[in-house]
Amino acid sequence: MIRYILQRLGESAVVIALMSFVIYALIGLMPGDPIDLMINSDPRLTPADAARLRAVYGLDRPLVDRYLSWAAAAIGGDFGNSRLHVRPVLDVMPGFLLNTVKLMGLSFVLSVAIAIPAGVIAARRQNSRLDHAINLLCFAGISVPVFWLALMLIILFSVMMPILPASGIASVGGGGGLWDAARHLVLPVATLTIFSVGSYTRFVRAAMIEVLRQDYIRTARAKGAGPSRIVWVHALRNAMIPVVTVIALSFGTLFSGALITETMFAYPGMGKLIYDSIMGNDYNIALVTLLFATAVTLAANLLADLAYAWLDPRISYASGEGARP
Amino acid sequence: MTEVLRPATPPEGMLMLFARRFADHRLALASLVVLLGLALLATAAPMAEWALGVSANSVNLTMRFAPPSLAHPLGTDELGRDLLVRLLYGGRVSLLVGIAAALASAVIGTVIGLLAGYYGGKLDALLMRLTDGVIALPLLPLLIVLAAVDLTKIGLPAELARDADVSLYRMVTIIALVSWTTVARLVRGATLSVREREFVLAAAACGAGPLRIMTVHILPNVVSPIIVATTLSVGNVILLESVLSFLGLGIQPPIASWGNMLTGAQELIWSAPQLVFWPGALIFATVIAFNFLGDGLQDALDPRAITR
Known about the structure:
Radius of gyration of chain A: 25 Å
Distance between the termini of chain A: 17 Å
Distance between the termini of chain B: 42 Å
Radius of gyration of chain B: 23 Å
Structural class of chain A: mainly alpha
Structural class of chain B: mainly alpha
Order of helices and strands of chain B: HHHHHHHHHHHHH
Strand content of chain B: under 5%
Largest sheet of chain A: none
Oligomer: heterodimer
Low-confidence stretches of chain A: 319-325
Mean pLDDT of chain A: 85
Largest interface: A-B, 55 and 46 residues
Number of strands of chain A: 0
């Protein structure tokens, strides 16, 4: 088991190293470069000054050279400064990260709390009207463009019925306290929850239908266990195994949803930080935040596989190549 | 002689069975009708322009935010352009990009899946690691970076890089580059099982080369998961295209797409909410229709899914 984890961690490290180079190269291909920005802010700079600055910052060196010196500094813990925030990258990130954890965490808990009962009920009454209604809602949630959903919620609850704030995390002037912060979270959390709950419900429903067909469910019924006990105790436990895995594997999708949600509601989280840094030529932030998002997604995938083995004792990754779900 | 060797069930029977099972899925059937209607309307966009006597890109600042009228059935936008005609042209772009990128990713996925499943061994391990790697990437941030790349820096002439038509090809390319993974996995899985069947061994014994075995003998047998996955991915591609275009990184104006018609919509939510409603509602309807269509195709093509 330990060997398996170490091997996976090694693979993830390779992926992150490769990604860091790809992202570094891609960011160099984005419009504008740091020297152009300096020239724009100080018109007195001559072309000769620009060339000198390029040399000072090493921008005239080949891509691989520049990448290697960035990587060497990064391994030493120095990720450079943010251009827009004028602070070291690592000082900027924690606040944004905390906001994203709040947003994603709340939406995740809410989605799961809705998806489990909805999916179980749909599976128990397969092909009933209720099942069809739940199915329709799931498809709606999966198919709605998140940015448009956010706009519609803002129009409904901030413009037509002005009861909720449309952006930010606190009212201007501050001092709103916990109640104010909670009010600002309602629309973003609702948006992200609607986005994720549909697919979660479909995972739960599919897994429950599969499990309810198994022989041991018939055994439980034969020995006289009541229908609710069979569903909520015998079946749900085993149905959760694939569900946990698929939900963990869909972490990247949830994060993409969070990026759009944060951008729409001007919510200062990691997604908005990534978007703003790419749009604002804040190279150091863009690099580190993109790599961070990759690392977290890889970690979620690894946890998904480990949880699969831990929840289902029949699966073992210990001997050689483990079959991935 | 050849008459005797024909399969026991004629192909018509299979098609009938498929059609009957597909028709059982009423939402899929309704979705097919909706999509055909949308495609027809989008194709007829120039006719709508002609009938209404307006043009999609003609700016008329005296007619900004006009309410619905006979000349402008859905009113006009912030530049006085006819909303209905622009929605129809936007539909062309969104459907075209969606279908083109889904087909392109199906081709990439099929090639990778066939190679991995047929050859197995090291090639399989390498290709599947690549697939796992791409699946594990945070998709949207990566697409934003890819869409923001300045094409002049990779050697494209400036006038070409700023050409609006190029943004169409670029969208199709970058979306196809990241969304082939589902098809690759499905095709690989199906290939692994088909590879061991007698008719493949027979073909190999008759001297068929790997290319012929993969394309003539295996591909027709793995085609149903490809069709289902591709249909489902059209919806996803349209969502990705719309969000990138909304952010100003996708389809570039003056070409209308449902996504870029919403760019700047945040300023319109007070003054003209109807302008915000329509493009998004059409994206929503199209995506949900493709998802239902894929669901219906899955039920009709996959014999194990009868118990839906």
